[in-house]
Amino acid sequence: MTPRDDRWLHAVFAAASVAIVVLVGIAVAREVHRPLTIDQRLVPALGVVDRCVTCHDEAKHPGAMLDRHPVERFGCTPCHGGQGLATSANAAHNAAPDWERPLFSKAERDAACGACHLGTNAPIATVATGRKALFDRGCSGCHTIPGIAPPDHAPELDGLRDKVAPAWVRAWLTDPAQLDAQHKMPTFRLTKPEIEALLAYLWTLPGAPLLPVPAEPQGDADRGKSTLARLRCATCHKFEDRGGDFAPDLGLAGVKVQPAWLWNYLTDTHRLRPHTRMPGFRLAPQDAADIAAYAAEQWVPDTGVLPWQKFDGDVEPALAPKGQQLFVDLGCGGCHLVAGKRAPPSAPALDRLGDRHVADLPLPARGRPPADVPAWVAQKVQQPTAFDVPSVQRARMPTFPNVRADEALALGIALASVHAASPPETWLRRHETAPFVPPPGETGQLVARFRCLSCHRFGGQGGDVSRVPLDNVGARLRQSWLEGFLRVPVTVRMDQPERMPVLGMTEAEARHLAGWLTTVFGDERIGPAPAFIPGDVERGKSLYVQHQCGACHVGDGAGTMKGPTLDGARDRLEPAYVVALLQLGPDVVPERRHPEQRLLPDDARALAAYVLSLPVLGAVPVP
Amino acid sequence: MAKEPQDPPEAGAEPGADRRDFLWKVGCAALGVATLEAAGSTLRFAKAPVSYGPAQRRVLGELARFPPGEPVYVEDAGVFILRDAKGMRALSATCTHLGCTVRSDRASGGFICPCHGSRYDAEGKVLAGPAPASLHFVRVDQDRRGRLVVDLGAPVEADHRTKVG
Amino acid sequence: MRELVKHVRASLFRVGWPKDERAAVKAMVSSITLHIHSPKVRPASLRFRATWALGVIAVVLAGMLTATGVYLMFYYYPHPDVAWRSMKDLAFVVPFGVITRNLHRWGAHAMVAIVTLHMLRVFLSGGYKPPREANWVAGVGLWVLTLALSFTGYLLPWDQLAYWAVTVGANMAGAIPWLGQPLRVLLLGDMTVGEAALLRFYVLHCVLLPLLLFGIVGFHLFRVRKDGGLVTSEHDPASDRTKEGHRLLPSWPHLVYRELIVGLLTTAVLLLLALVANAPLEPLADPSRTPNPAKAPWYFLGIQELAHWSAFWGGVFVPAITVLGLCAVPFFDRHMDGVGRYFPRERRVASGLFLALMTFFAVVTVIGTLFRGPAWALMWWPN
Questions:
Q1: Mean pLDDT of chain A
Q2: Residue B41 is nearest to which of C19, C89, C96, comparing CB atoms?
Q3: What is the pTM of this model?
Q4: Domain with C60 in it
Q5: Is C180 within a domain?
Q6: From chain C, which residues contact A within 8 Å (Cβ)?
Q7: Nearest in space to C134 (alpha carbons), one of C199, C216, C250
């Protein structure tokens, strides 16, 4: 023990004590600015603790969103992202190592809505568009996507060798845009040997045997054209550059498809293609031959040489096994049914993109790194090759034709609305009803045969060719009118290019379907038939003028054709429906296409009485 | 502490003793300050700045649930809603004695506390029993959807009514 | 009034502030806290290089960890739904929450390091030799307990780091033949890390292991005194074991004052650390998202590195044989030559072997911590 030690000890003691005082003092100084109380909103069911309201006043929230989504029930972060627990602006708004989710972008906010608002009719434009596009583009053919059904619009490939020439398949797989600028199938960036292999495999697929085409009667192209017009094929098919694009271009089909196959297809559609969306038209051999003759004359380019003719050559059967492997690897069978079966998903399930952080997703090799998950999806859809890992593997994702930027982003938003775990059931809003299951027996057979749901929607599901969903068709239309319409569809909506095709139903079939539709597809909002009283018609006429119904409807031969014509409506419409429409507004109208006018019961009854008194004047003559 | 914080023994009258004495005193004083700082910080630490308990402001429900006349008891808020022609009032059901929840007493038309028998009249005025004061009225309001909202943390005068409609 | 103060003081302190050596001795033996020390100490044991103060630092750290731990328990809920939120509350709303958690976290890391160094020091100076065998074994036990306390505390924040470190750690325990899986399930209370595991770890961390630690620390300190204080060399002139002898010094103030200063310095350094560096927190534990690589706590990364080569040999056999071997050492290495000095010629084999072992663990730990990247691949540049 030396004195020197002692001196040191005292100095160290004093220094350490003072240091502690200073250090604790610094800690105290850091606490001075902390507010004494912190305001927060708790949503235990969502695990939400949001302290945003400490700084932000919820009463100043723009728009009316909070009326339906009050903060005390929904919190802030489920819609806005960010860190609700944080009490500093930086920590609350930005990402950090312990908080990967900064405030949502506009796209992510839309996706957040989609987490609770399920279904393709969700009331958020981007989410609804995206969900429809996920189906239309065939995304759900390769990826499992909750809430999105696999696509039903890719042609079946059975018996392809009977349908088209090898050269056409080669040309299509090389560059479909050259054959059809509006093509829907994405391109897989195939090499020549890969195309040969795929072709060899496709040529091994058996189809239903073709019946021999009778030598008589000969087809007549002019008659074929008028048959197409009479049957309203242009609603779905395009020919001579006019018509819908819901189905293949008939001009193109005419030169692409072997005449024998086409004749067989037109005479008995569902024998060759049991899963097609096209209704069974039951064409007479003469009509089929006429249409085939017409189709064969179409689409000869200026040069006189068909663009795929240079791809001519023999199919090499030995390549078929390789082609089959390729068919599986590329996931072709996810969209194209073979022998009526769909291949299992060939690409990663997209069932939790909403939980992923963009930082965890692979970066594109070129281009700007996407800011959020929707943007990442958009970039992937628009430039799949940008995600190639050089020398390791090429992107399997195909290149989709004509993807607009807003559609790509909507796809991303729809996918980012999918989470592994849904919010609690009471938070969910399903914007579609259960899938429509056709009834068994004769009704089911008729529905399947005439493919009603290829064009019409029911409960948010089905095709979108027709603007008229079937949901409450029975409550709206009179059975007798419906029966006639099914046999010979008169045009009610002049403003729309899509017309109901002439399906060639027998009287018995039409009666059966009309009965089924009016019985099953009711509407509990529509009350019993009204009792009109004398004077209603006169008063209704002045109401008709007062409410300017003629701005959209044709009535008594005058008006415009924005809406369905009202002349002859008494034969078509159920009186109760007309009254309910005028009283309840557009809620009971298909697609809500009616002004938000809610009339008093007396007025509604009077106006209905007038409308239902209009004679058939301006109706389109039956073709 | 010790009134003569001294150098350790042996220090004696060696040279530098004054300086050592000073350092010792500085160290001890600093330790005292540090102890005070720590004690104060502990108190501050212990006061919880947020509450995960039920909120003071609670939505009671649609206005139609509370017709004029008989007081309506709202269980999860612990208040009686009194509605008359002049407006709405919310009477806290918490007994002013020891915090039990009072019940409405059909016989007298007032309220009675099950714990120690305090009695209140229909206006919450204490009539008998150990309760030191009348039942409290608390603020009641409507939110922007028109639902009734009570703020248990905001006492108001007995004649303070909220106009509704 | 003065009388009253006097009476109260007299009733609390059996002797007053000591004024001479005799009174100092009396003070030491009459106080329950000071009594853990002998009244007089050898000057040689007071030297800094005799102990590097590691034992005292460890005790002070244990005290600070207890204090901050109790504070944290006021705001911590041991349930997966809210455990991580508790961390956020400490960070965002609790006054002094950040520094309390920092003190606890850095104190825990420091304690693992200090206790390990303490063991190294004791071994190198031959402190495990007779009559101190039992105390050495107790020390090894305390080292294991320290690791266990740190490991159980690791899970409590319920962030990704915690969840996966404990998952990996528990699975390493599961590699023990026969016993492994039952032991793992016993520890976790379930097949995977979940709410049962969190509650168990909480109880172990806050109640069971601290009680064990305090008990064994009591035994450890008691035996230090009863086994004749610190081991010192017979060749040291400051040691009373030398022939000519040396005057013993009273523990008050020489030992007590030094201990106070070490305690204050430790506190100051830890406070400084807690003020400049925040304890890390990762995103909320997500059983569906494994970080790559998933790493155990740093002090187990040496074992994880070994387990990478062989789950049983590296992950079970080597650690088990190390702990058992440490416990067995004093019963085989009993000669007393060179005791009390660092690296004496007579003990160069023992010192060399032990240093080699420690270096080996240090190296694999550093490799596992810094040079292992995604998929446990070697990276030449630590990130």
A1: 86
A2: C96
A3: 0.77
A4: 52-297
A5: yes
A6: 43, 46, 81, 85, 88-89, 92-93, 95-96, 99, 159, 249, 254, 257-258, 260-261, 264-265, 267-268, 271-272, 275, 280-283, 288
A7: C216
Inter-chain CB proximity B20 and A7 less than 8 Å: yes
Radius of gyration over every alpha carbon of chain B, rounded to an integer in angstroms: 29
pLDDT, position C299: 84
The total number of structural domains in chain C stands at: 1
Q: Domain segments of chain B: what residues?
A: 17-47, 57-156
What are the structure tokens assigned to A450, written together?
Answer: 């005439």
Does some domain include residue C163?
Answer: yes
- In tens, the pLDDT along A290-304 reads 888 888 777 565 555
Sign of CA dihedral B95, B100, B106, B108: negative
Which residue in A24, A50, A98 has the most chain C C-beta atoms within 10 A of its own C-beta, making it the best mutation to test that interface?
A98
Best of A5, A18, A23, A100 to substitute, by most chain C Cβ atoms within 10 angstroms, is A23
CATH number at residue C254: 1.20.810.10
Is the predicted ipTM greater than 0.95, yes or no? no
Per-residue pLDDT of chain C (383 residues; tens, 9 = 90+): 889 998 888 888 877 788 888 888 888 888 888 888 888 888 888 888 888 999 999 999 999 999 999 999 999 999 998 999 999 999 999 999 999 999 999 999 999 999 999 999 999 998 898 889 999 999 999 999 999 999 999 999 999 989 998 888 888 888 888 888 899 999 999 888 999 999 999 999 999 999 999 999 999 999 998 888 888 776 666 665 555 556 788 888 888 999 999 999 999 999 999 999 999 898 899 888 888 787 777 888 888 888 888 878 888 888 899 999 999 999 998 888 888 888 888 888 899 999 999 999 999 999 888 888 877 888 776 65
CA–chain centroid gap for A201, Å, is 32
In the Cβ-directed half-sphere of B164, how many Cα atoms lie within 13 Å? 28
Beta bridge partners of B110: B105
The answer to whether the beta carbons of residues C124 and A52 sit under 8 Å apart is no
Closest chain B residue by Cα to residue C253: B8
Contact between residue C261 and residue A16 where contact means Cβ atoms under 8 Å apart: yes
Chain C: closest CA distance from residue A355 (Å): 10
pLDDT for A620 beyond 60: no
CA angle A103, A105, A109 (to 5 degrees): 90
Residues A140 and A343: their CA atoms lie apart, in Å, by 12
Count Cβ atoms below 10 Å from residue A253 Cβ, excluding itself.
21
Chain A residue at shortest CA distance from C45: A1
**A517-576 per-position pLDDT tens digit:** 888 888 888 888 888 888 888 899 898 988 888 888 888 878 888 888 888 888 889 899
Residue C312's H or E segment, with its range, is: helix C311-312
CA end-to-end distance (rounded Å), chain C = 67
DSSP string, C271-285: HHHHHHSPPP--SBP
* Six-digit token string for A509: 């079939």
Give the up-direction half-sphere exposure of residue A601: CA atoms within 13 A in the CB hemisphere: 7
User: Does residue C288 sit in helix, strand or coil?
Assistant: coil
Number of alpha carbons in the 13 Å side-chain half-sphere of residue C120: 18
Beta-strand pair A429-430/A117-118: parallel
According to CATH, the superfamily of the domain at B57-156 is Rieske [2Fe-2S] iron-sulphur domain (2.102.10.10)
CA distance B122 to chain C (A): 43
Q: Which long-range contacts (CB under 8 A, 24 or more apart) does A102-107 make?
A: A104/A79, A104/A80, A104/A372, A105/A371, A105/A372, A105/A374, A105/A375, A107/A372, A107/A374, A107/A375, A107/A409, A107/A412, A107/A413, A107/A416
DSSP C52: T
Q: Which residues of A touch C71 (CB under 8 A)?
A: none
